[in-house]
Write a structure and sequence with these properties.
Blueprint lengths: L1 H11 L3 E3 L12 H5 L21 H13 L3 E5 L2 H13 L5 E5 L4 H10 L2 E5 L3 E2 L4 E2 L4 H10 L5 E5 L6 E2 L2 H10 L3 E5 L23 E4 L1 H4 L7 E5 L6 H11 L6 H39 L3 E2 L11 E2 L3 E5 L7 H10 L2 E3 L1 E2 L3 E5 L6 H17 L8 H4 L15 H5 L3 E5 L12 E4 L4 E3 L7 H12 L3 E3 L6 E5 L4
Parallel strand pairs: 1-15, 3-4, 3-7, 7-9, 9-10
Antiparallel strand pairs: 2-11, 5-6, 8-13, 10-11, 12-14, 14-17, 16-17, 18-22, 19-20, 19-21
Bound molecules: pyridoxal-5'-phosphate.
Pyridoxal-5'-phosphate binds next to helix 4.
């Protein structure tokens, strides 16, 4: 049982978790829930309602969630925000429809576009060149995209990003709704926002028509637990319900659904003071780092006008000053008993939640202090090679729709030999972490050269297979 062994081994190491799920492995769940975990894993027996035709306890739990999150209707999801993103797009777009999406969308957006045969109109998010960080889309860019595409169905926004960056969603909402379009929000990382006024406003408060939240990322809920919320009358609820039933398992986990009910109840009853404490703890770590070490935090970056707010519970540390990469910092922290959520070339990203106690933050400060002290020994001199990195601002020419490209005869060619071909995958790099080429787009020389340059500098390419091959359309087949 290699997987069972590995999981038990990880749990036994008592590693401090700054990664999701937001319950952090602690006994934050009610005793009755924990003691009966296996007994509670049931199926749709009488009295337990049915996720896809709810009229009993699931309907009640969803109603309470809708009230708590400011929605008119909430759907429980057992396949994460991934299912919610798919459902939002599939329920609102017909084949051939245009949807405006940021280029830094989650990959589930492309899955939906391919399945539903939607034509994406991309908005390139702004790029902080100094810090090699993709930030957010601006309200002006949304306005321009809508003016140029008056036939688009709506706009999708990521709010906040993995790094906790929020766009001016309130301005975007006005622009979108003035034109009678739909506002769909991927709030996978912002399920906690509604529970405290010191957090950025949530998509529901800012007028989204539909928004999805991964409860498992920032709330005490089980992995895969997510909410899909709908507000107003622009979206056909019955259509959404039908699509969710198509996308998810016909045997939804009662444990996951119960954890959605629990997370809502817990946050409503105890969330506010716990978030207050969390913001305080994260702020204390940040100011300690600023005063005692050379760590830069994302809060120190100069913010562009496209950024409205930062999630104060997200800890993003920049390790460039020490001459190491974020990947190396992640490894060093793991050796010190801390597992973070994600690293990129420059930074480490830590997910903090109401389940983190003071002890976790104390251990973190100690580990970061040790790391800062030993860093002169592990300098790798990467910093300068990245100083001038940019991203191509031009979005490549769309030759085929993503669906046409996906269903073409595909061949695999080395990236360096792909110039002039039509991309059949999603190819990009970290940094900057957004696709250079999406399905159906013409692969150009500048883009390929930039990707190869980033790779030479130590950046990581995504969408490129082990042998350095990428999928392209075989136009001769
Ligand atoms: C912005 C964004 N949207 C959607 C998702 C998908 O969420 P889930 O893992 O709940 O399916 C993720 C996952 O990391 C994400 O970062």
């Amino acid at each position: 049982m290699p997987l069972v062994k590995a999981l038990i081994g990880y749990a036994g190491q008592n590693i401090v978790r700054f990664h999701m799920p937001g319950h952090k492995g602690f006994n934050i769940f009610p005793r009755d829930f924990l003691d009966n975990l296996i007994a509670l894993d049931i199926t749709e027996i009488p009295g337990m309602d049915n996720l896809y035709l709810p009229c009993g306890v699931i309907a009640q739990a969803q109603m309470l969630a809708a009230k708590a999150f400011g929605a008119d209707h909430t759907f429980f999801l057992v396949n994460g925000s991934t299912a919610g993103v798919l459902a939002m797009i599939m329920a609102t777009c017909r084949p051939g429809d245009k949807l405006i999406i940021p280029r830094n969308s989650h990959r589930s957006v492309w899955s939906a576009i391919i399945i539903a045969d939607v034509n994406p109109v991309y908005i390139q998010p702004r790029y902080d060149k100094e810090n090699c960080l993709v930030t957010q889309i601006s309200a002006q860019d949304v306005e321009r995209a809508l003016d140029e595409n008056p036939d688009a169905v709506g706009v999708m926004v990521v709010h906040p990003t993995y790094y906790g960056l929020c766009s001016h969603l309130e301005k975007i909402e006005k622009i979108v709704h003035e034109r009678g379009k739909l506002l769909l929000v991927d709030e996978a990382h912002g399920a906690h926002f509604i529970f405290h006024s010191d957090l950025p406003p949530s998509a529901g408060e800012l007028g989204a028509d539909m928004w999805v939240q991964s409860a498992h990322k920032t709330l005490p809920a089980l992995t895969q637990a997510a909410y899909l919320h709908v507000k107003g009358d622009r979206v056909d609820l019955r259509r959404v319900a039908q699509i969710i039933a198509m996308l998810q398992t016909s045997s939804p986990s009662y444990l996951i659904m119960a954890s959605l009910d629990w997370a809502r109840f817990f946050m409503e009853s105890e969330g506010k003071p716990l978030i207050e404490r969390l913001i305080h703890e994260v702020r204390a770590v940040k100011s300690w780092l600023q005063n005692h070490t050379g760590f830069l935090i994302i809060d120190d970056y100069e913010k562009g006008e496209e950024i409205a707010a930062l999630d104060p519970t997200r800890l993003v540390l920049d390790v460039r000053e020490f001459g190491i990469t974020g990947y190396q910092a992640e490894r060093i922290l793991r050796e010190a008993g801390i597992q973070i959520e994600m690293s990129d070339m420059y930074r480490v990203v830590l997910i903090c939640s109401v389940a983190d106690d003071k002890r976790a933050f104390d251990i973190l400060i100690k580990a970061l202090n040790n790391l800062a002290k030993r860093l002169p020994d592990c300098k790798v001199g990467k910093k300068t090679s990245y100083d001038n990195m940019s991203i191509s601002r031009e979005i490549p020419r769309q030759m085929l729709s993503p669906r046409e490209a996906f269903y073409s005869i595909i061949e695999r060619v080395p990236l360096e030999k792909s110039i002039g071909r039509i991309c059949a995958g999603i190819i990009g790099s970290y940094p900057p972490g957004i696709p250079y080429f999406c399905p159906g787009e013409l692969i150009d020389k500048d883009g390929v050269e930039e990707l190869l340059y980033i790779q030479r500098c130590g950046g990581v390419l995504f969408g490129v297979e082990k042998e350095g091959l990428i999928p392209v359309v075989n136009t001769k087949a």
